[in-house]
Design brief:
Blueprint: H1 3-6, H2 9-15, H3 22-25, E1 29-32, E2 35-38, H4 39-42, H5 44-72, H6 79-103, H7 111-137
Antiparallel strand pairs: 1-2
Helix pairs in contact: 5-6, 5-7, 6-7
């Protein structure tokens, strides 16, 4: 689906018509993938949608990292290879996701999204790995 087909802006306009927290959010501005992100630059609803979309990236790849690590931990032969293999696996999925976006009309693949996904997965893999390793020791 193209961005235009899946945008949540119309839904956000209906649900958040009073623009809650606009004053607080107005002070936030940053650059992401070469584009300025702020309410002044993109508008309230697109700014909120940006955080929803990036939050979805982080959540999905955090859960992927947790699941892969937990599902493969007992099969590890070399514990020092397990962590990088899990993170690289998640990075590969993120790269394929962006490749798919490249093939879809009206979508923009971003290297920054791959890095965001990888960071979320790395945090999840680290936390799960430490928790499982600690459980194994006790």
């Amino acid at each position: 689906m193209t961005y235009k087909e899946q945008t949540t802006v119309p839904l956000l306009e209906r649900l958040l018509h009073n623009e809650p927290f606009k004053q607080a959010l107005s002070g936030i501005h940053f650059n992401y993938a070469g584009e300025q992100q702020s309410i002044a630059e993109v508008g309230y609803f697109k700014f909120v949608e940006f955080f929803i979309r990036k939050g979805a990236h982080v959540s999905i790849f955090f859960l992927l990292g947790l699941g892969l690590t937990q599902g493969t931990f007992m099969y590890q032969k070399n514990r020092w290879l397990h962590w990088p293999l899990m993170v690289l696996s998640c990075t590969g999925v993120a790269a394929f996701d962006e490749f798919h976006q490249m093939l879809t009309g009206g979508r923009t693949p971003l290297f920054q999204d791959v890095m965001l996904d990888t960071a979320a997965a790395a945090v999840a893999v680290t936390l799960m790995w430490l928790w499982l390793w600690r459980q194994k020791r006790h």
